[in-house]
Amino acid sequence: MSALATVIGVLVLAGLVVVYLKLRQKDIIGALLEKRRGNSRLVSRADYVEGAELIPVAMALTNDSLYYENPDLEASFELNRIDEIEYSDELVTGKNHTDATRVLRLRSHGATFEFLMEKPEAQKWESALPARRLGTARAHAS
């Protein structure tokens, strides 16, 4: 009987740790968004798609760069180095996502980067960072 109670206790503790870590990560993403808010035209939460993994990130758009970061990742693109910008309802991999999200897809020097974000946030990004194809004008909203 005590072995069963121990197993149940360990499972409950493991569940609480997972919940705590997810909540803590959201707090950290929120802090990153606040840090970028003053110098950015747009900031949003998103998930960076890396293979089958969805990595929560804070995204920020300035006049010349796009940043995506979390506690383990600090990355950015200079806007003039992005070859293509696309908004889609489907991931390149065909992996499913919810109807409430939209894909922001960037291509730079032959590499593709995808971000999932809530549809209202994606609309803001599409207004601030319009879609464009390789070979078209590189003008973007300032």
Structure description:
With 142 residues, the protein is an alpha+beta fold. It has two helices and seven strands, in the order H-E-E-E-E-E-E-E-H. Strands 4-3-2-1-7-6-5 form a seven-stranded antiparallel sheet, with helices on both faces. It starts with a helix and ends in a 14-residue tail after the last helix. Residues 138-142 have low confidence and may be disordered.
Gap from first CA to last CA:
67 Å
**How are the strands of the largest sheet arranged?**
4-3-2-1-7-6-5
Overall geometric form: elongated
Please provide the ordered H/E string of secondary-structure elements: HEEEEEEEH
Structural class, by secondary structure, is: alpha+beta
Helical content band: 25-40%
Largest sheet: 7 strands, antiparallel
Computed Rg:
18 Å
Highlighted features:
36% strand, single chain, 142 residues, alpha+beta, disordered C terminus, seven-stranded antiparallel β-sheet, 7 strands, 2 helices
Task: Break the fold down into its secondary structure elements and pairings.
Elements: H1 2-37, E1 42-50, E2 53-61, E3 65-70, E4 73-78, E5 84-88, E6 101-108, E7 111-118, H2 119-128
Antiparallel strand pairs: 1-2, 1-7, 2-3, 3-4, 5-6, 6-7
